[in-house]
User: Which sequence fits this backbone?
C-alpha cells in the first residue's frame, strides 16, 4: 500500500473541462504528478454551463419541484465530464477509470440539492491508485444510504475533492481553476486585484462568505477539520497559486 504522502487529489472546475482542448491541458497536470510517481485521484466538475442548462431543463419540464429527481438530472453533467476526461487520460497513455458518486459510495444525507457527505468508501480508489490507475471521479454528487442520488449544492465539486483527499489522507488537494489563485477581489472584474499566496482556513471561510466563489465554503471547513492543505491554482499555467492551510508551519511544509 502506498503511504499517505504519495497521494494527491486534483480537481478541475467547469472552465477547465469546458472543451476537449482544455481537458487535455488539465490532463497534463495529471500526467506531471503521475510521472513523478504520485498516486493521483481526479475530481471533475461538469463542462462549463452544463449544470445551468440541466437545472433549466428540469425546471421547464413541470410546474412543481421534485428535488430528488432534479438531483438525478443535474448530476449527469459530471457523468459526461468524468467519462471524457478518463478517455483523454487513456489516450495520453495513463491508465484511468471513471467513477460516479454511488459507484465509490460517497454517502450523503438525503437533503436533496444540498446534501452533506457523511462517509466515503476508499477501497476501490486505494486499490486503483496502488495499481497506478487514476480514478476520475464525478464531483458534486453522492448517494443516500438507501441508494438515491444526491447533489452537494452549487460549487459542490470542491467539497467532493476535499472530502476525497481527506478520506485518502492525501498530502494536498489541488483545485484547478481559470484564475491563478485566490485574489483580494475578482481578477476578472478588477484588474488591480492581487493574488494571495497564503491564507488560513478561517480567512478563506470569511472570504467565501463575502462572496468569493473560488471555493465552496463547506470544502474549506472540511479541509480545516482534517488539516488538509488546499492549493488553488490555474489549469492554464504551472505557477504556484494560493495555499489554504492552517498556519505558517503547515504552509511551509505544503508540497507545491
Ligand atoms: N457542476 C456543479 C455546479 O455547477 C458543481 C461544481 O461545478 O462544482 O455547481
Ligand atoms: Mg467552482
Assistant:
Amino acid at each position: 500500500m502506498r503511504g499517505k504522502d504519495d497521494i494527491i487529489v486534483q480537481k478541475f472546475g467547469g472552465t477547465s473541462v469546458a472543451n476537449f482542448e482544455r481537458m487535455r491541458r488539465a490532463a497534463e497536470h495529471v500526467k506531471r504528478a503521475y510521472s513523478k510517481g504520485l498516486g493521483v485521484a481526479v475530481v471533475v466538475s461538469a463542462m462549463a454551463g452544463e449544470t445551468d442548462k440541466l437545472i433549466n431543463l428540469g425546471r421547464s419540464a413541470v410546474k412543481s419541484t421534485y428535488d430528488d429527481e432534479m438531483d438525478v438530472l443535474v448530476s449527469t453533467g459530471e457523468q459526461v465530464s468524468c467519462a471524457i476526461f478518463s478517455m483523454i487520460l487513456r489516450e495520453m497513455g495513463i491508465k484511468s477509470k471513471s467513477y460516479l458518486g454511488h459507484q465509490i459510495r460517497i454517502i450523503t444525507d438525503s437533503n436533496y440539492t444540498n446534501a452533506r457527505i457523511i462517509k466515503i468508501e476508499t477501497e476501490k480508489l486505494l486499490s486503483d491508485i496502488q495499481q497506478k490507475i487514476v480514478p476520475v471521479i464525478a464531483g458534486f454528487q453522492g448517494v443516500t444510504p438507501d441508494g438515491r442520488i444526491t447533489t452537494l449544492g452549487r460549487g459542490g465539486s470542491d467539497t467532493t475533492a476535499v472530502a476525497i483527499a481527506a478520506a485518502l489522507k492525501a498530502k494536498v488537494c489541488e483545485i484547478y481553476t481559470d484564475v491563478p489563485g485566490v485574489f483580494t477581489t475578482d481578477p476578472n472584474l478588477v484588474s488591480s486585484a492581487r493574488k494571495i499566496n497564503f491564507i488560513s482556513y478561517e480567512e478563506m471561510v470569511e472570504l467565501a462568505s463575502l462572496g468569493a466563489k473560488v471555493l465552496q465554503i463547506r470544502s474549506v471547513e472540511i479541509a480545516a477539520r482534517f488539516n488538509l492543505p488546499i492549493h488553488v491554482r490555474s489549469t492554464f499555467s504551472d505557477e504556484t497559486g494560493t495555499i489554504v492551510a492552517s498556519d505558517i508551519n503547515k504552509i511551509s511544509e505544503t508540497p507545491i
About this structure: The chain has a mean pLDDT of 94. The pocket of aspartic acid (ligand 1) is lined by residues 13-14, 45-46, 51, 77, 139-140, 154-158 (CB under 6 Å). The domain at 4-253 is CATH 3.40.1160.10 (Carbamate kinase).
